[in-house]
Design a protein that fits this description.
single chain; about 35% helix; disordered N terminus; Protein trichome birefringence-like 38
Length: about 375
């Protein structure tokens, strides 16, 4: 009975398809109503067009956001051995030299969600940057970042001829075989701080050091760490805007005004056809355990692993909003090295007490370590 039904159904389907083909042929030959003919022709054209629009092969991926991702364990990391391949790490950042017992913090690689960062290639970097000057400008977090790049390059070309020059505010390492200079310029606030009879005056609308900065080929700026410092460690006695001098003001407002001064300098003084400009985002610290779901902790001393996932429980610092707002107002091309979110996950990557001062440091970063990833991103931006 079942086979009979199937045979009967097949015969009906055969006759139905035959009749349908005859009708279509009749309509295309000019028979039938104009409306029916128009509908079928439109459907056939649309079907043919949709087939033509189908991609013939893989499509080009959209540009990857390298700042969205997570930390993954990778046994091929770190990218160099800081104990043998970089003999000039400062005592603030040399965690292994000063007794850090765990090593897993060195084994994490940043993995963007939709692509892979190119591994840092020192020789390729030096060849591409041949004859150029790269300057980091900012506070000790810029120094941290500068030290990382020097180590990445030296470890990759260990037999390179180097020269090293240092004074009170500028340190320069030159890879002489390639004519590449990597320079650190210390500037806590970017704007000027001037010694006057009344004391040290920070001038929110003055930026005289820019005369040197704009001669560089690559600039990486950073400021924020010192804006909230008060008491004996504060680097100024008075703050000035225009003709107005005061003992203090709202620090976030002062930071915003200084950033506006810097932004105007970028637009008016920097030839961005020659000089690439980057701003290093806000680097987070880890002194409050609630930021990684461990209330009660007041430092990073026992942290040996990064947070999992792509975001930390606490949001971005307010200073980052100021940075992004100001950068969006600049007419010249400036790239934000948006390292805040990825760095907030790395509660494990600070020196803690393993530094030359033996103090608890959950602000700066071990080298080798996290800043190598910052420079890996810088490398990807420069070769893009």
């Amino acid at each position: 009975m079942s086979m009979g039904c199937e045979r009967y159904g097949a015969i009906i389907m055969f006759f139905f398809i035959t009749i349908l083909l005859c009708v279509v042929g009749f309509l295309e030959a000019g028979g039938g109503s104009a409306v029916q003919s128009s509908r079928i022709i439109r459907w056939r054209k649309k079907h043919k067009q949709s087939q033509q629009e189908q991609p013939a092969g893989p499509q080009e991926p959209t540009r990857c956001n390298v700042y969205e991702g997570s930390w993954v364990y990778d046994s091929s990391y770190p990218m160099y051995d800081s104990t043998t391949s970089c003999p000039f790490i400062r005592k603030e950042f040399d965690c292994l030299k000063y007794g850090r017992p765990d090593r897993n913090y060195l084994k994490y690689r940043w993995q963007p969600n939709n692509c892979t960062l190119p591994r840092f290639d020192a020789l390729d970097f030096l060849k591409r940057m041949q004859g150029k000057k790269i300057m980091y400008i900012g506070d000790s977090l810029s120094l941290n970042n500068w030290q990382s790049l020097v180590c990445l390059l030296y470890a990759g070309v260990p037999n390179a001829n180097l020269s090293w020059q240092t004074n009170t505010s500028i340190s320069t390492v030159t890879f002489q075989d390639y004519g590449v200079s990597v320079i650190m310029f210390q500037s806590h606030y970017l704007v000027d701080t001037v010694k006057e009879p009344m004391g040290r005056v920070m001038k929110l609308d003055s930026l005289n050091d820019g005369a040197l900065w704009k001669t560089m080929d690559v600039l990486i700026f950073n400021t924020w760490l010192w804006w909230l410092v008060r008491g004996p460690r504060q680097q100024w006695d008075y703050i000035q805007e225009g003709a107005k001098i005061s003992k203090d003001m709202d620090r976030m407002d002062a930071f915003h005004k200084a950033m506006i001064t810097w932004a105007k300098w970028v637009d008016t003084d920097v030839d961005t056809a020659k000089t690439k400009v980057f701003f290093q985002g806000i680097s987070p610290s880890h002194y409050n355990g609630t930021e990684w779901n461990e209330p009660g902790l007041r430092n990073c001393a026992k942290e040996t692993e990064p947070m999992s996932g792509s975001t930390s429980p606490s949001g971005p610092p307010p200073a980052l909003s100021v940075v992004k707002e100001v950068l969006s107002s600049i007419k010249n091309p400036v790239s934000l090295l948006d390292i805040t979110a990825m760095s907030k996950l790395r509660k494990d990557a600070h020196p803690s007490s393993y530094n030359g001062f033996k103090g608890m440091d959950c602000t700066h970063w071990c080298i080798a370590g996290l800043p190598d990833t910052w420079n890996q991103i810088l490398y990807s931006e420069l070769i893009a």
